[in-house]
Design brief:
Elements lengths: L2 H20 L30 H7 L7 E8 L2 E9 H19 L1
Antiparallel strand pairs: 1-2
Length: about 100
Amino acid sequence: MSQDRKKRVKASGEAKQQADRESCCGTTASGGTCCRVEALVSIDERGQMILPKEVRDRANIRAGDKLAVTSLEKDGRMCCILLTRAEDLSGMVITVLGSVVKNMV
């Protein structure tokens, strides 16, 4: 393998490690993901739900905060709904787009 290729592979590995450290949804040391069921919530007749206080406290969510709703689909059917703090989502987009733009230049 050429020296240039080795440097690119090393840089790529370091970038992934940095992204895993920065992203809350990277892999853990044991190889698993950080995702888990935090709580079960019910939806009322008006379509509203209450996010339990313990979850709000752990996520540092306060009254007036904005959450982005993201969906995942499998076989044309929505299977997951994710809630992300809006300011965290902005940071993730900047991180992803920054590396895409870097690779284009």
